[in-house]
């Protein structure tokens, strides 16, 4: 992989990891376009860690508060004053369970999932439909509580989003809105929930990276830096769009990208 290709793919990852247009789908299409097969596992893992760094920065205070509450409760068994953070931690844990199970099952089919532009196209169109429908579910400060059931449903959807073309952020935020959450809560939970999912996926990929004797080259380093910087900007942009009720405006792009991906199979 050339350095410029790594940077372009890193930018794609940074933009599409948070904007609701499917990062995995765009990475698959980008790698197919560049005819890249070598170092795929190492590169994919690295650029995902780059975008995860952006989540840590934007949600640093939330993560810090949750960890403090967990440590306090573990030491005192007293939840007084920490109820909200502990409830959020429980929701993240519950939501992560179906994500992990579905992810492990889907991993067996990754050779099929991550090489088909036809599948990516179909799933991008589906993502666009979810985004467009979500416009009828916007709520400002009047949403329902983030219950265990809602966390479980969102976790299931996040697990299914491992399929290239389904946007993780788009599907989970839209599902949060569908289940009655207000848009700020839906977005916040979506990105906090992605932390254990991305970390878990990268831990699982370490074995594959070692077996493939992959190594981190200059293209991977440049791509990771690009994914972090662009991801930070994209995440802040998405949160602003969700807050202003313009989340669904990405639907036409998903439809167009999906149609182009489908047509590419016949050209």
Give your account of this protein's structure.
This protein has twelve helices and no strands. With 267 residues, the chain is mainly alpha-helical. It has one domain (3-262). Helix 2 (23-34) runs antiparallel to helix 7 and helix 3 (40-58) crosses helix 11 (218-243). The model has no long low-confidence stretch (mean pLDDT 86).
Write the topology of this structure.
Layout: H1 3-18, H2 23-34, H3 40-58, H4 60-76, H5 83-107, H6 110-113, H7 117-134, H8 148-160, H9 168-178, H10 183-211, H11 218-243, H12 251-263
Helix pairs in contact: 1-2, 1-3, 1-11, 2-7, 3-10, 3-11, 4-5, 5-8, 5-10, 7-9, 7-12, 8-9, 9-10
Q: State the helical fraction.
A: over 70%
Q: What is the tally of helical segments?
A: 12
Overall mean pLDDT stands at: 86
Report the major sheet. Answer: none
Supply the key terms:
12 helices, 267 residues, globular, mainly alpha
Short précis:
It contains 12 helices and no strands.
